[in-house]
Specification:
about 325 residues, 7-stranded mixed sheet, 5-stranded antiparallel sheet, 17 strands, about 25% strand, binds S-adenosylmethionine
């Protein structure tokens, strides 16, 4: 048996890891980067790049470049870079740069001195973290797992993980679980340390101290279904992110951010259906896309953790 963190890393990023598969993440689940949602997301990202005063967008953990396609279509003036664990997709527009990455918490050496808006959309949730559980004596122990998903408790968690749990996710009730966010915090800090100017943004399902999931959130997806969490390389393994411990300048919900940028789901005046039917249908479609992206019980609940690079701060 191995620690969940170790097994999770191997299952997603090992030689035959899930994220190296031909079909990519979009073969198994849909995100806000895909389809019509992705077109609006691209608009938001381009707006934030403009606000940050940069003309380069790095899409870290970019899947097969879905969002980069939208950004390229809408804003060919932006320099675009995709970072992923696989080879450059053949259909990616040629001006888009591509960097290969080891995966998980590890970033490519070439990703540094960034003067860019760096977007990590659903990256941190797939950075494996220590999974721990409180035993009958109140001790926080690592959860071990085998290739079939069977679990048992191992040693007490290491001192640095323990310190993180004490500070951010204290748990004392037997069988409560803690997904220790230290590996995500360190990955985020590593990303920030590579930014010379601009902004870094991590977007994920997240939680804060007041609303931790006491039985954890580790789950798996395969072919559009939620399935049992088994580290077998044939399914995505993901756990929500403790976004408050990242130390970002600001964490806002996607709903709040989009509203702040003036994107609301207001439907167009019905009278336009007669005078401008095509425009009416277009605006109706856009309103329903924005409604999906801002749904407080769905995608609107995503956390946007944002930090301006230190050299940009006043
Ligand atoms: C949940 S998918 C999200 C894909 C895309 N951003 C989207 O929202 O549709 C997570 C992606 O992160 C990628 N990933 C994980 N760690 C990475 C790393 N260190 N560098 C680059 N990509 C990484 C995985 O290969 C996978 O494609």
């Amino acid at each position: 048996m191995r620690t969940w963190r170790e097994a999770w890393g191997e299952a997603l990023y090992g030689t035959d890891g899930f994220y190296r598969r031909e079909e990519g993440p979009a073969g198994h689940f849909t995100t806000s980067a895909h389809g019509g949602l992705g077109a609006v997301l691209a608009e938001v990202v381009a707006r934030l790049a403009d606000e940050a005063g940069v003309c380069r967008v790095v899409d870290l953990a970019c899947g097969r470049g879905e969002l980069l396609h939208h950004l390229h279509d809408q804003r060919p003036d932006l320099e675009l870079v995709g970072v992923e664990v696989v080879e450059r997709p053949r259909d990616l527009p040629s001006p888009v740069e591509w960097l290969r990455s080891p995966g998980g918490p590890t970033l490519p050496d070439d990703l540094r001195d960034l003067d860019a808006l760096v977007l990590a959309h659903e990256w941190l949730d797939v950075v494996p973290c220590t999974v721990a559980e409180v035993d009958d004596d109140g001790v926080l122990r690592e959860v071990l797992v085998d290739g079939s998903g069977a679990e048992r408790l191992g040693d007490e968690v290491a001192a640095d993980d323990r310190a993180w749990a004490d500070a951010w996710w204290p748990a004392v009730t037997p069988s409560d679980r803690v997904e220790i966010g230290l590996s995500r915090d360190l990955a985020w800090r590593d990303l920030l340390s590579r930014s010379a100017s601009g902004m870094a943004i991590a977007v994920d399902y997240g939680h804060a101290r007041t609303g931790r999931p006491s039985h954890g959130s580790l789950t798996a997806y395969r072919e559009g279904q939620v399935v049992e969490a088994v580290p077998d390389g044939r399914r995505d393994l993901t756990a929500h992110v403790a976004t408050d411990s990242l130390g970002a300048d600001e964490v806002v919900t996607q709903r709040k951010l989009l509203h702040r940028l003036g994107l609301t789901a207001a439907t167009p005046e019905h009278s336009r259906a007669a005078t401008d039917p095509l425009g009416y249908v277009h605006d109706l479609g856009r309103a329903s896309t924005i409604a999906a992206l801002t749904d407080p019980h769905g995608l609107g609940g995503f956390h946007w953790a944002m930090s301006r690079s230190r050299t940009c701060q006043t």
